[in-house]
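On clarity, I found the account of how folds are encoded harder to follow than it need be. What matters is that the chain and its backbone geometry are given together, residue for residue. I therefore recommend that a typical entry be quoted early in the introduction. An entry of this sort, consisting of the sequence and the corresponding backbone structure tokens, reads as follows:
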Amino acid sequence: MNEKFYKTLKSVETEDWLDYHLIRPICYYLALFFARFNIHPNTVTILSMFVGAGASLFFVHGCFYYEGTTGLLCNITGILLLIIADLLDCTDGQLARMTGKKSRMGRILDGVAGFTWYIPIYVLLVYRFYLHHDIEFGWLGIENTPENSLIATAIVFLLGLYAGIGGLGAQQRLADYYIQLHLFFLKDEKGSEFDNSARQQEIYDQMPKDASLVERAFQKSYIDYTRKQERVTPQFQRLITLLRNRYGTSTNIPKPVREEFHSNSLSLMKWNGMLTFNFRSFFLFLFCLLDVPVVHFLWEAIAMTLLKWYVNHRHESFSKKIADKLESEG
């Protein structure tokens, strides 16, 4: 790829192998197409939301075991739609960097895009379980009665709720935060979208009286988004507060401090990347094709939660180490 392509990336360091070698090149050409017709990046983001949410209408169908070839084709269609949604979601950022059309609303939309895909998908996967659960009932030796179906579906709903909000939502929020922190120490504030809740609250408080309810709602949700990121990273918050109090702007942070943070963060990027779309969606697709989507909820609730804990623990550990060193040096 040419130099223009590389300029549309946040950083090569924050891209996984599949993104860098396949997804991002495709998105680059999509961005060129949208730029040619002067289509705004936010429009592309909104389009990705509709396409991703539309995938849920196909994932609700049982796959080959329950609905034969028709079910298999429906699930494959859902997979393709979700992949297209991800391509569009990646394209919006590259298009914004290509055209210079970056905006605060674009950053907010990008943060919520994935949730608009998975909320309807998860809800309809619960309904899919209600319709098709012979495999799971067979594993557990449960008699397939209407009463047992309702009780099991209620349990699966609670599991899906946890997997979606406490699992997927928290994981993607943290992964996004760590990418922005990595870029902050690599490229300074101008090369990053590192935000904090205090600043976002100021923006909300200063919004003009005639600001639309939609804009206010999005900004309010973004305040909550950033607060949740800060709540699970207390040692990093301590570190960034020390750095700001001592050095002011990011450009004044000493090179050794910046390099130490960057080195530790870089070693985590491959694990952090597993909390994003490519790795996670592989298992969603797999379990839907195997006709046991409830197993995906268990995977999200257990395996992905453990991965999130590992990434968070390591990031907090080296943040604490750097902060302790700064305090000891006075």
Q: What stands out?
A: DSSP finds 14 helices and no strands in the chain. The chain has a mean pLDDT of 91. The radius of gyration is 22 Å.
